[in-house]
Amino acid sequence: xxxxxxxxxxxxxxxxxxxxxxxxxxxxxxxxxxxxxxxxxxxxxxxxxxxxxxxxxxxxxxxxxxxxxxxxxxxxxxxxxxxxxxxxxxxxxxxxxxxxxxxxxxxxxxxxxxxxxxxxxxxxxxxxxxxxxxxxxxxxxxxxxxxxxxxxxxxxxxxxxxxxxxxxxxxxxxxxxxxxxxxxxxxxxxxxxxxxxxxxxxxxxxxxxxxxxxxxxxxxxxxxxxxxxxxxxxxxxxxxxxxxxxxxxxxxxxxxxxxxxxxxxxxxxxxxxxxxxxxxxxxxxxxxxxxxxxxxxxxxxxxxxxxxxxxxxxxxxxxxxxxxxxxxxxxxxxxxxxxxxxxxxxxxxxxxxxxxxxxxxxxxxxxxxxxxxxxxxxxxxxxxxxxxxxxxxxxxxxxxxxxxxxxxxxxxxxxxxxxxxxxxxxxxxxxxxxxxxxxxxxxxxxxxxxxxxxxxxxxxxxxxxxxxxxxxxxxxxxxxxxxxx
Length: 485
Description:
Layout: E1 2-3, H1 4-7, E2 13-17, E3 23-24, E4 26-28, E5 38-41, H2 54-59, E6 62-67, E7 79-83, H3 86-97, E8 106-111, H4 116-129, E9 134-137, E10 142-144, E11 147-149, H5 158-170, E12 175-179, H6 182-186, E13 195-200, H7 208-211, H8 214-226, E14 233-237, H9 243-246, E15 253-258, E16 265-273, E17 276-281, E18 284-287, H10 295-308, H11 313-322, E19 331-335, E20 338-343, H12 348-359, E21 368-372, H13 383-393, E22 396-399, H14 409-417, E23 428-430, H15 434-443, E24 450-454, E25 461-464, E26 467-470, H16 473-482
Parallel strand pairs: 4-5, 5-6, 6-7, 8-12, 8-13, 9-12, 13-14, 14-15, 15-16, 20-24, 21-22, 21-24, 22-23
Antiparallel strand pairs: 1-3, 2-7, 9-10, 10-11, 16-17, 17-18, 19-20, 25-26
């Protein structure tokens, strides 16, 4: 419980009607989650306007309303806070409600199209291996030291972020590694958070259904670094052609990492095997258990962050050598002398990187079999690109369903097929049912072939229509590999 006047510290208010000393027991921007003594923040979203639900929030027990437009009819017992931007102030109010937990630990944010989950998870695990209490907020899950919580968003709602950060502080967590999505930046879910380090992994075609243009997508990511202060550090991938754009206007200290260009942190790939990468960083050779040459960037980013945080280099190297693949990220499944790989790749660039990495493990005599689909209700412009990349790099591509949501899977697959060149059409199969597609992929395997299942990674469900159906690529692939002849 907090006094309202405390919650309004550093909040840009235009006008306040009512008692500022009332007690507030919870904060929400969802009228259905309002309870007694709640503050309801009315936010104008892309699809819904929270101002239309103010009356419902009051009926449900709200004692304070934060809004941009005062309702025509007000209630005497209710305190109204009028602000210029309720979305911005909501995030800051949530931080105040939990006593600004991001200022009490070291918060590291990782943003980019690909590599966020892997880099954040590597960092969390490196510190856990050194018995340093750490937290993780990622697409896969939220972790507080050794406790795990499920999440539905890459970057949660502002209230949820601050709730978990506060839990971390209360349990003595010193470092939290958080994925920062472009949606969360534009929607200001991270407003008011104090980041010690911001990491840029890379940027490529994704989320254009939301951002409309690639330029807008870049701008969204850039805002994160624009808002870092002079006490923080921006660590960016200088091999990415848009890397320099990210840090153009930042007040933070700037550090870079790369494989090819000159940078503050550089990595060299010595060997790339299915058993793991052998790499060199600052003249130290590391034998890792992480496969996929593109993972060198994620390893290097994690190393660089640890170094910037002041950890002993030999302990960092030792911990990295113990790391395993993150669930659903280039996760190798070997059964019955047959090999499969599950990966979350669902963008053209990510698919290309994964498949080219797998190509290095296959001789010209053997096949790369790829099972891939595209999500419904998402960026349609990337579908033909994904179809083109899969069919050109793979020996056999099986196009299938992948969270079609409210779209017809057949039409989604049709969009993918439009990207297939005539010379590659004989290499493409269409099997709409995802389980049957995986079963077929395994049946086509010969010794030393590799089957790759892309798109869902760690997810344990399929979104079909308005139903969430239990399904796991990893479990399904493992099941059929075990039964392969």
